[in-house]
Amino acid sequence: MTATPAAAGKLQVEKTAPPPTSDRARSERRLGWLLAGPAFVVMLLVTAYPIAQAFYESLFKYRLTDPDARAFNGLGNYAVVLTDSVWWQAVGVTVLITAITVAVEAVIGFALALVMHRAITTLRPVLRTAILIPYAIITVVSAFAWLYAFDLQTGFVNSWFSWLPAISEETNWFGGFGTSVTVIIMSEIWKTTPFISLLLLAGLAQVPEDLQEAAKVDGATWWQRMYKVTIPNMKAAIMVALLFRTLDAFRIFDNVFIMTQGSQNTEVVSFLAYRQTIGRLEIGLGSAVSVLLFLCVVLISVAFIKLFRVDLSSARGGN
Amino acid sequence: MEREQTARQKSLWWVAGVIVIVYALFPVAWIVSLSFKRASDLSSREFLPTTWTWDNYDLILRGDFQDLFLSALRNSIGITLIATFIAVVLSTFCAYAIARLDFPGKKLILTTALAVSIFPVISIVTPLFNLWRNIGLYDTWPGLIIPYLSLTLPLSIWTLSAFFRQIPWELEQAAQVDGATTWQAFRRVIVPLATPGVFTTAIISFFIAWNDFVYGISLTSTEAARPVPAALAFFTGASQFEQPAGAISAAAVIVTIPVVILVVLFQRRIVAGLTQGAVKG
Amino acid sequence: MAAITMKNIVKTYGDGFQAVKDINLEIADGEFMILVGPSGCGKSTLLRMIVGLEDISGGEMLIGDERVNEKAPRDRNLAMVFQNYALYPHLTVFENIAFPLRLAKTPDAEVKERVNHAAELLELTEHLERKPANLSGGQRQRVAMGRAIVRNAQAFLFDEPLSNLDAKLRGQMRTEISRLQKRLGITTVYVTHDQVEAMTLGDRVAVLRAGVLQQVDSPRRLYQNPANLFVAGFIGSPPMNFIPATVTDDGLSTPFGDIQLPPGRSVDLSGKEIVLLGARPESFEDADVVSDTVREHGMVFDAQIDVIEWLGNEQYAYVPYEAPEQIRQQLADLERELDSEAMRTQLVVSLDASSQIEESSTASVWMDLRQVHVFDPGTGENLTAEPAPVSDETAEGQPA
Predict the structure, then answer these.
(1) Name one GO cellular component term (chain C) (predicted).
(2) Looking at beta carbons, which residues of chain A come within 8 Å of C55?
(3) What average pLDDT does the segment C121-148 reach?
């Protein structure tokens, strides 16, 4: 594996190096690619290659249980997927879950960030620790916790909240679309809000204190300071946090798998791809769904970057 | 904002802080409580057990689920640690080059890492599932370690590059003027400064790999390689439709313990690592 | 300890930019040499070439009598204090100072003795176990110096060591460095853009501009006998006034009246139309306080006083005047090069503290013509400069 990046590095150097570069600069370039190359190549091998492979396989009619019937199908699989209501249903559910989670998380995350930002020093490490636990806990574990909390047999939620008009002892949360999605969304929000709030906290810390003081002297109320000073000044952090969470939420899989297995019409795009490939061994169709999901993610990123002009390179510490 | 808070404001922020802590820990407390319930208690619909018992832990560590759980735990630990180690080693070299050396393609590497980190995992799983079956990596440790790198490598490269950029590299020169060889300057000045960043990156990488479910459930079929999160989905109770909530909870608690320990010990570093990778802080 | 000799030193970067152009400089053993100039003049690059952190593109660098061009920094045995001190954050103050000794595998007992000695010298003894992050700016500065003096280096190199300190501390540390250098008698090269440091610390000062050495001389001679417009404008605060003058048949015509240069200052002006007269603020005085015997050495003119700054021991008066467009442009360029803003053409005049001249009035001001310099506006050359003394004993650099 070390031979490849070295060769690649050399190629790169010869292509871009203007003739009069010193030996030192040239050897620095070589060393740079020698060190960075392996990581780069491995990264490409484990991601770009599978995507390319998925695209290739998506062009075939191919079912693992019937390998002899494998045949080139052009964009046929895409036609099948895109004309099937199952796909659109899954896309709809995914978009719904993504939109609600990200919107709610932005609000809660900002509140959490504010609390951490303003909390007195003694409380801060405790808060940090507490907030990191949902982030670091295994998603499947969190899904089980929420599943059992709402489950008809094991759950305490019904008995605790039966005083609410919509909830009774016998409310079957996983018996209908609305309630199932609600629980899925809640668990997703609980698990991933800490990430957003930490990014927002870092953004908050970057807003200079004297801007706040200047605004105060200028007569701004707390809300006005938030809206006119704090938030505009941490826009980059907010947009990056939202982008990453949106992409992450769009790939939701674990929660759905554990809680509903896609029943009650809660199937999301990732789960559809999984079911086609692993469950039904429809490699061709599954690959088409995977490629489409990949395209969706790319589309969302492009939309964010173009529409909101999120500057990832500057916001992510790259110069 | 306000440096001096009034007593009322102070208590308000205290209350807010307590709410945040309850919010963050409540589901964890619930699963812990569940894991200590007796079988008869499981459907009591109460938050706390009526009597506390170690039964569920006994079940997964010595009882019916022993084989399923312990092998999964072994797989999880082994695969996660190896994937983390490889990612950290590769990305340390890579991030060093990015932070320290001048060569064309730096931006390309960082952009690729960023792009890869937003890849939908499921899109990678589909082709790997087929390929792994063909080349015999299906249901093996390497069969999971390799795809885990797609999760841990980009993140490590990003985080470490951000860490390494903050190292005052002129210290290396200062050391050379002080009489150090290149190696001595690296060993005695740069390594001590870089270690915390590498360590933090390793922890975050560990979390990511430890959390994986998609690869675990798609690319394994037996106890040979199945990690804990995937194994949890295969716990079955007396009837096929009834999941053994107690055993699952106990297993969930056990795999959460290392996470909690790491978080408690290194919370400050983890926050720094997470936010440095994302927003310049 | 050793002399440092630079012969035709050139630094060219990969993109062809020449940061240092053909510099010849001899620094004698034990001499305190200042490299000064505005930012980007190549002074730091030159220092880094001495220490070996920057490759030398051309020329020869000698330390003692040994060519060091190809030597690694550690083989040059020089000690350097960096601008931001470059303290190792993971080591205590003691270990920071001991670092060069540790690298040289000095026995523990000796390390202890030498570090303690250095710490005593720098009043760091009670901080030895602390980490750099817990020190104040001045303390960090002293730790950096401790690391430099703890070993027997051939020379000290300082790269703007005081620029991160506040004004008061800077003054104290300046004295400290000066005292230390005299005590240790070690060859020192000190880079700064601060002319107060340049004037007070150095045995000699080398003024650089865009990679070219302008003048090397003692602070006093630099001040009194600048080689060109750049040096004249750079050294001194407030800076020298430059007054445009038209060459006439019987002298010079300035915005303040016609003047005749005294014999000591007369130069050959044939063929020139315009020259710049350089006069330091202290070459002016309130005509009322100038005694008659002195008065005849200068000229008296009426000046429109704009603003007066009273400083207690003296006062500065600002006298705006009109200058020809071409000259104004050139003065603006010069100001820009000297890192300052050209506000308007005006004289800055130093007046005796007892002077009663008031703001926004017309006053009678005397200019001492014996100290006036005449510059060629085209080349910037000081036409009245005395040639440098042929044998300057410090410049020869004989090792003691």
Answers:
(1) ATP-binding cassette (ABC) transporter complex, substrate-binding subunit-containing
(2) 22, 24
(3) 90
Closest residue in chain C to residue A26, using alpha carbons only: C14
Superfamily assignment of C230-375 in CATH?
Answer: Nucleic acid-binding proteins (2.40.50.140)
Fold of B66-234: MetI-like fold (1.10.3720)
Chain A residues touching B114 at Cβ < 8 A: 312, 316
Per DSSP, the three-state class of A177 is helix
DSSP assigned state of A156: S
Q: Do A21 and C55 touch (CB under 8 A)?
A: no
- A11 exposed, middle or buried (CB, 10 Å; 0-12, 13-18, 19+)? exposed
Checking if the pLDDT of C328 tops 90, the result is no
Q: What is the pLDDT of residues C27-67, one digit of tens each?
A: 999 999 999 988 888 999 999 999 988 889 999 999 988 99
* Nearest CA-CA partner of C371 in C269, C298, C274: C298
Residue of B nearest to C73 (CA): B177
Binding-face residues of C in 129-188 toward B, CB within 8 A: 147, 151
User: ∠ CA(C33), CA(C35), CA(C38), 5° rounding?
Assistant: 160
Domain assignment of residue A133, given as a range: 76-315
Q: How many CB pairs under 8 A join B and C?
A: 55
Q: Which residue has the tokens 């040994």?
A: C66
ipTM of the complex: 0.88
User: Nearest CA to CA, how far is B80 from chain C (Å)?
Assistant: 31
C14 — contact with chain A (CB < 8 Å)?
Answer: yes
The model's pTM:
0.79
Q: How far apart are CA B48 and CA C303, in angstroms?
A: 94
Going from N- to C-terminal start, the domains of chain B cover 66-234
Q: Do A247 and B233 touch (CB under 8 A)?
A: no
Residues A34 and A86 in one domain: no
Q: Place B275 in a pLDDT band, splitting at 50, 70 and 90.
A: confident
For residue A278, what is the nearest residue in chain B, using CA coordinates?
A: B218
- Contacts of residue B172, defined as CB under 8 A and 6 or more positions apart, other chains included, come to B185, B186, B189, B190
